[in-house]
């Protein structure tokens, strides 16, 4: 586990995932600690160009009932969001709801 990933495990979102059996991993689909991402629900031009959050941890639960049911890896992406209107800066997003942002 990278130092940046280990440091991130002190936030509430990471601690909650650890309690639920998730473990930190280094990468998933090109998403690593420090990369810019957007929630797939954020569909405005700036979100596509610059992202809406920065990844602070990538975590996986294996095995899980979700992964067994859907036949896919159970990955959560812990992010620090740019817009704090949701009350906290750190959130966990499911990997299927997270898109990697590649600057143009």
Task: Kindly list the characteristics that best describe this protein.
6 strands; 25% helix; alpha+beta; plasmid; 104 residues; six-stranded antiparallel beta sheet
Notes on the protein architecture:
Helix content is 25%, strand content 31%. The model has no long low-confidence stretch (mean pLDDT 89). With 104 residues, the protein is an alpha+beta fold. Strands 1, 2, 3, 4, 5 and 6 form a 6-stranded antiparallel beta sheet that branches. The chain has one domain. Keywords: Plasmid.
Q: How are the SSEs placed, and which strands pair?
A:
Blueprint: H1 3-8, H2 12-19, E1 23-25, E2 36-39, H3 45-50, E3 53-61, H4 65-70, E4 74-81, E5 90-94, E6 98-100
Antiparallel strand pairs: 1-3, 2-3, 2-6, 3-4, 4-5
Keywords: Plasmid
